[in-house]
Specification:
pyridoxal phosphate binding; elongated; alanine racemase activity; pyridoxal phosphate; about 30% helix; binds pyridoxal-5'-phosphate; alpha/beta; eight-stranded parallel sheet
Length: about 375
């Protein structure tokens, strides 16, 4: 692997293939695979990730917002794209770029039907989202009759799928709640089929749902974090490979004497003669200020160097008193060995937040 000479996010596409194949191996052959590539494919690069997954014949993509789907279409992605949380101001663009909306409320359904009628389109594919307990987005089960009758009178749209989202699929303490969500979803699907006479696809599982609830895969699964190498458990993390490595270099080394201070607000005071290294990555690159003052660390020559003082916008300073290193040496913020989920033992966050935070200023490099 090339040594970093500036701050880079290295993305290993062979690890992506590995994760995709591993997750696919958990499915029945007929079950479709939707890859969630929202938020720049969880902080990596949605276009390169989608191109790679398209080559692997993934069935569907999902993004959160219309703008994210447009970026994929601009890059030539042809696979169907579900937009999980579109706003009606963007419905014209959505239709124009062949993106498929999640419809989660009567208000949104009415607005979407109105636009499809104005544009004189027929059978536009839509996906109905039901709320089975997350209480974030979705129709309540009680609303089914109303929704079905509205759609029966609207030839401009066609229900491609019904879906819902699990609240705690990674947490076996919530086993009963998850089972309740699965039952509720099955009940909704049955009612929908009875009332409409149609059998749209059904999908419920995110990554942890795929791994923990094989009985709930239905026609399709939606995976995000697993593709990027995290399984939300110690056991499953062993089967997956983090695709992204965040690396930088040592810009400068200082030797400071006892009682000298480091960084803004003089937040760190040296305990004796110490060596510090300045690294060109800061809170504008995704290193949250919470990691300052000893809460986070980087790795230099296989040793952990704690972040000292406050995280600056463009830089951090780390303590390298006990580490043999020199200016220009490579610095690992996270990789497949020092995982993003451990970047800080004290930050009380999750892999999702750390990897999606890597800002667009950081150069992306792709390894095949
Ligand atoms: C983000 C998202 C997913 C992906 O979840 P992971 O835990 O990353 O696999 C699936 N479905 C919906 C509705 C989402 O918003």
């Amino acid at each position: 692997m090339p040594k970093a000479q500036e701050t880079v996010l290295e993305i290993d596409l062979s690890a992506l293939t590995h994760n995709y194949n591993y997750l696919k191996s958990k499915l029945q052959p007929k079950t479709k695979f939707l890859a969630v590539v929202k938020a720049f494919a969880y902080g990596s690069d949605s276009v390169e990730i989608a191109k790679h997954l398209e080559k692997l014949n993934v069935d569907y993509f999902a993004v959160a917002y219309v703008k994210e789907g447009v970026a994929l279409r601009d890059a030539g992605i042809k696979t169907p794209i579900l937009v999980l949380h579109p706003q009606s101001i963007n419905f014209n663009t959505l239709i124009n770029r062949c993106l498929e909306p999640s419809i989660y409320s009567n208000h949104v359904l009415d607005e979407f039907i109105k636009i499809t009628e104005e544009l004189d389109v027929q059978d536009y594919p839509i996906h109905l989202k039901f709320n089975t307990g997350l209480n974030r987005l979705g129709f309540k089960d009680k609303e089914i009759e109303n929704v079905v009758s509205k759609i029966k009178h609207s030839p401009s749209v066609k229900i491609k799928s019904l879906f819902s989202h699990l609240a705690a699929s990674e947490d076996f303490n919530e086993l009963h709640f998850t089972q309740f969500q699965i039952k509720t979803f099955q009940h909704i699907a049955k009612q929908f089929e009875n009332l409409s006479g149609e059998k749209p696809w059904l999908h419920l599982c995110n990554t942890s749902g795929i791994l923990n609830y094989p009985e709930a895969h239905f026609n399709m699964v939606r995976s995000g974090i697993g593709l990027y190498g995290f399984g939300n458990s110690v056991e499953e993390d062993k089967n997956l490979k983090p695709i992204a490595s965040l690396k930088s270099i040592v810009s400068q080394i200082h030797t400071i004497e006892k009682d000298e201070t480091v960084g803004y607000n003089r937040a760190y005071t040296s305990q004796g003669t110490e060596r510090t290294a300045t690294i060109p990555i800061g809170h504008a690159d995704g290193i949250n200020r919470i990691y300052g003052n000893g809460n986070g660390f980087v790795v230099i020559n296989n040793k952990k160097a704690p972040i000292i003082g406050n995280v600056c916008m463009d830089m951090i300073m780390v303590n390298v008193t006990d580490i043999e290193c020199k200016e220009g040496d490579e610095v690992i913020i996270f990789n497949s060995e020092y995982k993003a989920s451990n970047l800080s033992e004290n930050a009380k966050t999750i892999s999702y937040e750390i990897i999606t935070a890597v800002s667009q200023r950081v150069k992306r490099i792709f390894l095949s």
